[in-house]
Amino acid sequence: MKNTGKLEQSHLFQYIHGYRFTQLIYVAAELKIADFLKDGPKDSCYLAAKTNTHEPSLYRVLRALTSIQVFKESEQGFELTDLSQFLISDSPNSLRVLAVMRGEEVNWKPWGELLYAVKTGNNPFQEVFGMDLFEYYETHPSSGQTFNEGMNITTQHDIQTILDQYDFSYAKTIVEIGGGLGRLLFSILAKYPNKNGILYDLPHVVKDAYTLRAQFQIGNRCGIVGGEFFSTVPNGGDVYLLKRIIHDWDDKRASKILRNCHQVMKDQGKIVVFETMVQDDYDNPEGKVNDTHMMMVTPGGKERTREEFSKLFQSAGFLLTQVTPIGKGLYAGLYAIEGILQ
Predict the structure, then answer these.
(1) % of the chain beyond a pLDDT of 70
(2) Domain with CATH 3.40.50.150 in the chain
(3) Strand bridging mode 239-243 / 270-275
(4) Which one, 82, 191, 203, 237, has the greatest CB density within 10 A?
(5) Dihedral of the CA atoms 194, 276, 335, 239 (nearest 10)?
(6) Looking at the domain that runs over 2-91, which CATH code has it been given?
(7) Interacting residues of 160 by C-beta distance below 8 A, sequence separation 6+
């Protein structure tokens, strides 16, 4: 029992200093250090020259990263480890872009105002940047591109789970709302060659989806439409699909998105929302933790419980019919939340 306290203290100590590790990994990812180490060890002088950085400072950062097994230091210099394999830009399941995205100020600055959020109930992102998250990405195209690439990586991790665990055989035309570059929808249509689809997202997002669509060789079975889902959504679908979209918004605006789907949905249509859910069990904390991130960076967004989803669906004219856990995504459990027209 005496050792238990020590272990718990050490555990908490690691959490207290977590921000350090985030920034250390961010710097390595931003500088693409792992890319330079693909063909073997390199010393800090070589890496500093390649990255145009201050060698003594870079060395100290890389040395610190060896303490958490991101890199390994040897007589030849720094080497890749099992962890840093995932920081190589073109490696399967690379997390480099996500490391950059989470380390940029667009993520960490609002978290510096968590106490402000708790005291006031106001949105820290708006307080720090004077605009909401999505306005920020529109006015900061480089960060916006990183965000889109990061979400694309998250989607890649979700896709196989969705394809394996959710059956779209009942659908005829699937409309994906806020589908980004279209990887999920294109993957579904590739698996189900008798289905059609419509990809819908902001014009500056979907303009890059045409190249990806061609790679999936789905012909003319998927239209690509640019627009704003608070105004309108494309008609003609019997299934309206939203993956990790609703959690970005407060109940009023989330309900508006769903109502827009309701207005154009065919009779016997279905709404399918893939989201993380807040659960009561302690073995699945991801939904609760991610909910606080939504509080910090989104305009009223949150992760919801089943009861909250039921009320949200009802406010938009849907009846929640089924909630199915379909597996664990990259950072949180994923659920298929289904509803029909009331």
Answers:
(1) 96
(2) 149-281+299-341
(3) parallel
(4) 237
(5) -40
(6) 1.10.10.10
(7) none
pLDDT of residue 281: 66
Interval 225-250: pLDDT, tens = 999 999 999 999 999 999 999 999 99
Distance CA(148)–CA(209), nearest Å, equals: 11
Distance CA 342, CA 333 (A): 28
Q: Are 174 and 168 in contact (CB under 8 A)?
A: yes
Q: Which residue has the tokens 């307080």?
A: 127
Q: Predicted confidence band at 152 (pLDDT cuts at 50, 70, 90)?
A: confident
Q: Cβ neighbours of residue 209 under 8 Å, at least 6 residues apart? A: 180, 181, 182, 199, 201, 224
**What residues act catalytically?**
247
Asked if pLDDT for residue 1 goes beyond 50, the answer is no
CATH number for the 149-281+299-341 domain, one of 3.40.50.150, 3.90.1150.10, 1.20.1440.20, 3.40.50.300?
3.40.50.150
Q: What is the pLDDT of residues 89-115, one digit of tens each?
A: 999 889 999 999 999 999 999 999 999
Nearest-angstrom CA–CA distance, 306 and 146? 32
Output phi, psi for 231, to 5 deg: -90, -55
- CA–CA separation, 100 vs 59, rounded Å? 19
Location of each CATH 1.10.10.10 domain in the chain: 2-91
pTM of the model: 0.84
Q: Is the pLDDT of residue 12 over 50?
A: yes
Contacts of 255-260 with C-beta under 8 Å, sequence gap 24+, read 255/312, 255/315, 255/316, 256/230, 256/316, 257/177, 257/229, 257/230, 257/233, 258/312, 258/313, 258/315, 258/316, 258/317, 258/318, 259/316, 259/317, 260/229, 260/230, 260/231, 260/232, 260/233
Residue 283 has pLDDT above 70, yes or no: no
Which residue blocks in 169-226 are alpha helix, DSSP H? 183-191, 203-206, 209-216
Amino acid at 200: Y
Provide the 10 A C-beta neighbour count for residue 119: 9
Nearest to 197 by CA among 208, 186, 206: 186
